[in-house]
Specification:
Radius of gyration: 26 Å
Strand order of the largest sheet: 9-18-17-16-12-15
Order of helices and strands: EEEEEEEEHHHHEHHEEEEEEHEEEH
Number of domains: 3
CATH architecture of the largest domain: 2-Layer Sandwich
Oligomer: single chain
Helix content: 25-40%
Shape: elongated
CATH class of the largest domain: Alpha Beta
Distance between the termini: 65 Å
Mean pLDDT: 81
Low-confidence stretches: 113-145, 197-208
Number of helices: 8
Strand content: 15-25%
Structural class: alpha+beta
Number of strands: 18
CATH superfamily of the largest domain: Chloramphenicol acetyltransferase-like domain
Length: about 450
């Protein structure tokens, strides 16, 4: 008899824990190598988890909707259906408890054991009539963990907002939990992990007033994504010597060409598309900005792989436009919108948001005049793009009505000097003030 542990993988470089959004298999199912067994909410997105080894599912140890720490055993497989896995399951539960305690500040986590080499002989799926019990000799070590009937979109929402499914009352068919149920539970505040379970219909959250005017307020648990964002940005600001340089762009031609593209053939071109294209071309001229910092070395890149900051309900994610310097404005725009849609739906794959050589963060749609952005390590620079404002500009020695776009570059002074940043912004300004060149 051989068993295989399906351990929770690190689906991003910063992932230490995630949430099992949904299982694609159940006890008794035959799993093949490479088969998707679950969806995991990481600190970045909801991603699919593929099994490295095959076998028959003996037991799922971490139910859907629960937090899972990296290296915990989420499921135990056996080489043949019906084999007892009681000892492996008991050992896995003990390991999971140790890892959970270590993650919460308890005893140090045990080092993960090297996986044994197991040769599995695929077995036919047993029928309901012929399949023996999965653990005929096993004493019940613990009460079975409850599985929840929930729609996929509701499961993703619950994972993103840290909701305990045991505290959500499903109103769908056969008690199925729907998106409306989890949205109402979040508004009421009764289903947050650690909150008291609601009896019957969701009740209003019990709020604790602490403001001087007596207005009520309440704590909200941070999701795994929000916690990672907080940690990474605090580390970036504390450890990277940021400096900023701002440039004002005469954006009259930029605004005009955007409108002309729409009128010419209905192509939707945004200012952000043009900025990403211009930044990609400028990075090829100034490779010191198209780089990542690695302690004793700075790695410069030939390809301008630009991360575009996208706001999602629970934070911020930076999908990548790979080889942006080799793509047209229209291609960049189509790709950015497709990536933003996938980000909002939690469907980004790791290769679509991990890496990148430079970041563009745009708040122009909110009409801000200017802002500074925090560097996304290990990158050495990030560009903050504000809104186009109606302002007086000087042309031919005359003050006339015009449009101004302000760009602010935050750079890592360990890898980039002020002259490098200023030269990059000058090139970027020149490209944006003659935007017809960006369309060829």
């Amino acid at each position: 008899m051989a068993t295989i542990d399906l351990t929770v993988p690190a689906k991003s470089p910063t992932m230490t824990e995630g949430t099992i959004v949904a299982w694609r298999v159940k006890a008794g199912d035959l799993v093949k190598s490479g088969q998707v067994v679950a969806e995991i909410q990481t600190d970045k997105a909801v991603v699919e988890w593929e099994a490295l080894d095959g076998g028959t599912v003996a037991e799922l140890l971490i139910p859907a909707g629960s937090i899972a720490y990296v290296n915990q055993v989420a499921a135990v497989l056996t080489s043949k259906p019906g084999e007892s896995a009681a000892a492996a399951i008991a050992k896995a539960r003990e390991l999971n408890a140790q890892l959970a305690a270590a993650a919460k500040g308890g005893a140090p986590a045990p080092a993960p054991a090297a996986p044994a080499t197991v040769v599995l002989t695929p077995a036919p799926m047993p029928t309901a009539a012929s399949a023996p019990a999965l653990h005929p000799q096993a004493a019940p070590a613990a009460a079975p963990q409850k599985q929840y009937r929930i729609t996929p979109v509701a499961a993703r929402f619950a994972a993103q907002h840290g909701l305990d499914l045991a505290k959500v009352r499903g109103t769908g068919p056969s008690g199925r939990i729907t998106l409306r149920d989890v949205e109402e539970a979040r508004r009421a505040g009764t289903a947050l992990i650690g909150a008291a379970p609601a009896a019957g219909a969701p009740a209003k959250a019990k709020l604790k007033p602490f403001r001087a005017d007596g207005a009520p307020s309440a704590d909200q648990a941070m999701s795994a994504m929000r916690q990672v964002i907080a940690k990474r940005l605090a580390e970036s600001k504390a450890t990277i010597p940021h400096f900023t340089v701002t440039e004002a762009v005469d954006a009259g031609a930029l605004a005009a060409i955007k409108d002309q593209c729409a009128a010419y053939d209905g192509v939707k071109v945004t200012v952000n598309d043009l900025v990403v294209r211009a930044a990609a071309l400028a990075l090829r001229i100034h490779p010191r900005l198209n780089a990542t910092f690695h302690g004793t070395a700075v790695r410069q890149y030939d390809s301008a792989d630009i991360c575009v900051a996208v706001a999602i309900p629970d934070g911020l994610i930076t999908p990548i436009v790979a080889k942006a310097h080799a793509k047209s404005v229209r291609q960049i725009g189509d790709e950015v919108r497709a990536l933003a849609k996938k980000a909002a739906e939690g469907r980004l794959q790791p290769h679509e948001f991990q890496g990148g050589s430079f970041t563009v963060s745009n708040l122009g749609m909110f009409g801000v005049e200017s802002f500074t952005a925090i560097i996304n390590p290990p990158q050495v620079a990030i560009l903050a793009v504000a809104g186009i404002k109606d302002e007086p500009v000087v042309r031919g020695g005359q003050v006339v009505a015009g449009k101004v776009l302000r760009l602010t570059l935050s750079a890592d002074h360990r890898a980039v000097d002020g002259a490098d940043a200023a030269a990059f912004l000058r090139t970027l300004r020149e490209l944006l003030e003659a935007p017809a060149g960006l369309l060829v």
